[in-house]
Design goal:
Elements lengths: L1 E2 L5 H9 L7 H10 L6 H6 L4 H10 E2 L4 E7 L5 E6 L5 E9 L2 E5 L3 E2 L17 E2 L2 H15 L14 E4 L9 H12 L11 E5 L6 H8 L2 E5 L5 H7 L8 H9 L10 E7 L7 H10 L5 E7 L13 H13 L3 E4 L13 H8 L4
Parallel strand pairs: 1-2, 6-9, 9-10, 10-11, 11-12, 12-13, 13-14
Antiparallel strand pairs: 3-4, 4-5, 5-6, 7-8
This protein binds iron/sulfur cluster.
Iron/sulfur cluster binds next to loops.
Length: 355
Amino acid sequence: MVDLASLSREELRRWLAEGGRGANEGTVWTWLHRKGGRDPEALRHEGRLSAALLDRMRREGCVGRPAVAWEQRAADGTVKWLLSFADGARVESVFIPDGDRGTLCVSSQVGCALACRFCHTGTQRLSRNLTAGEIVGQVLLARDLLGDHALPAEMPRRLSNVVFMGMGEPLANYESVATAVRTISDRDGIAISRRRITVSTAGVVPAIGRCGRELGVNLGVSLHAPRDELRDRLVPVNRCYPLAELMKACCGYPGLSNSRRILFAYTLLEGVNDGLREARELVQLLDDLPAKVNLIPFNPWPGAPYRPTPPDGVRAFQLELLGAGIAATVRETRGGDIAAACGQLKTEAAARCVP
Ligand code: SF4
């Protein structure tokens, strides 16, 4: 059986063409991705495809979704899903509402090899890359669960933005991420503009320029330290691609402007990277680059070797950046009443033997 929703548009076109005449890839694509179609019978009723093709879709095709192994809902509306794929691999997706819109944070790998010290996912070894279909499946499932597929075409969807900031390093799984971005942004399907898609990297420098040229998405960088000696410890990929190389790649990222800035994530760890020294070094590092900084109060997980910076320390750090003219926001701690740190739900589920 072929999971039709997991195919790229070109793959779908070829698969349908193998079935002979009457193949209309645009109709099937829109049904799969815009309407969230699962049962080809709906297409028969619309009379849009030949009977032979519909029979083939039923016999040889299916439309899958990852299974929800566990769902947690926070008081602020944040929803976190632990998802299972056919081979038992599990990842997390998080929906963060903002008024009547919202952002889905998707995973790109099962575990992560980059082992950032403050990141809970970094404690889970890399099992495998997700396929493009498994990444798109997270978006389609979220739209199912949020009711987006049932809305009339002219109504805005709740799921308006996608960020690749879940489990895994997206640029270490570039081909799947690229195919997924093309599918998610296709105007006949899910149709989320690439201006509303952000791919975040811990610093896989060789793929940054390619990501900008080929995909045209927003770039996020998990920075977390403004000098090599500190970043080598917190974000070990820095030992391969030190800050000078990372910043050079950032400066060359296509399409940067004041209205299209790189988003630098900086997790504040008490007594580690949250002093005025680091704030000033960060100002120097980002000098002249269209950048915005998202300061993230550390979300502790059991056994974490760090503590969060107290609120007055967060504010002092932010003021130092703002004073130097750098846009700096403090990320609200969303979903504080659920296991909100990336990778934490998966560990909790294992501890509780969630099937
Ligand atoms: S922060 Fe990102 S790149 Fe680093 S270990 Fe966590 S998931 Fe991997």
